[in-house]
Design a protein that fits this description.
32% strand, seven-stranded mixed β-sheet, mainly beta, 4 helices
Length: 365
Amino acid sequence: MRQIRFWLVLSILLLLGVMARPAQAALLCDALLGGEVDDSCLSGVSEPGVMQSRFMAPEPFADSLFGRVYYGRLADNANVYPEPTRAVSPVRNVGEGYLFASVLSWFQNDAGETWYEINYGEYVHEDDIAMQEVSEFQGVEVMRQPIRPFGWVVQEVQPSGEPDGEPDPAFAELTRYTFVEVFDAALGEDDWLWYNIGNGRWVRQTYFSIVDVNSRPEGVGPDEFWTEVDLYEQTFAAYEGDRMVYATLISSGLKQWPTYEGLFQVEDENRFRQFKMSGAEGRKDYYFLEDIPYIMYFDMYNGIALHGTYWHDRFGYKHSHGCVNMTVLDAEWTFNWSAEAPNNLWVWVHTSDPVTHLDTLSSGG
């Protein structure tokens, strides 16, 4: 009967033409089966990465900066000119470091050279700038409280048929950013957890970043907005009171530039839709980053913020100078959502113990 119901729903979805949007299809699947979906509706029988009814791809914002602002990495010691030609004296030299600029336009001059306008009246030759591809990854809105851990593949892997097993060619390879749910977990021989992600597929924990529901930290009110930054899993979750409403991947600080643990708040005056960041001037790790989107400073003592990140696509791994790097789309969602909060947004930074996933699953999650 379960298979009959699934294929009936699948046929209806195909007829309605919604299979191009898996998250919307999942919600429709939920509705067609009367609200409380059997876990096999989409998650247990679908291709890897199809989200079940608890999760939905966020809708884009009309005023989004994503896709409307372009960025380029400047070469060391690049000259910046007042006109798109090297026939005039430069107005400045950018020096050496990790240097990014917003790009207003690019075009060819009369000599056939491509030039980039990085500020009004400031031009860089094509030899001295490389356009940056911005990550398109985005997390999920959580429509109903998750009943089990979930997350994303952070390194491509071929599943095994059992814990500690060899990769099984019968299973398709899981690509980076594939969405998964964890149906069971077992401790392997080397004390690594192995996760059952459905359809008989087992994968070692090191290939995933996993999110699990957590209780409100002490001091956060029952109706307040708060977020969780998990330094072990490199994940982020947003809550309204006790209900999770969003989850995604992040990149926190590297060992030499840690993101500090604790419970913080984002004050209104420390929120910026776009602003520059720079640091370590005069050192080899000097950086200058123009127009960082959706900045929310929470640890002012150490200058640490949640913010959009256009210069890398290493989410799920530590990669930052201390800040909590989010994709532009994830930071945008968080920025807009928290603007409606009844409180200054709480940010709880901590290091989880993945063995708690065993407890979650054994308790019926």
